[in-house]
Amino acid sequence: MPSLFIALAAINGFIAVGLGAFAAHGLKSRLPEDLLAIFQTGVQYQMYHALALFGVGLLAMQLSDSALLRASGWLFVVGIVIFSGSLYVLSLSGIRWLGAITPIGGVAFLTGWALLAFAMLAGRTL
Fold this sequence. Notes:
Blueprint lengths: L1 H26 L5 H30 L4 H27 L8 H21 L4
Helix pairs in contact: 1-2, 2-3, 3-4
């Protein structure tokens, strides 16, 4: 499991850098400022949580039996897909109702962070 989370971190970091460059160079002249800012928010949160996944992978090397830690990592993945993904689609399509989906990804992020804290406080007991 540790290597899977580290691989997912690397993949998401790669995608975030690529999409950030795409936004800066390919979308800057094509999207209105408000939609470009939404796209960039998706990139930022994807990168933050790619780094969080990296941390989960490293911690999983020490606490491989922690269900809380595994759940935290998977919630970060779900959050990236729903939060960042909905922002990417919203900004590129202009379909504003997609913003209603974004908070679901935010809740996944928050829950992932809470479970990460609980996993570290609980140690190997869970």
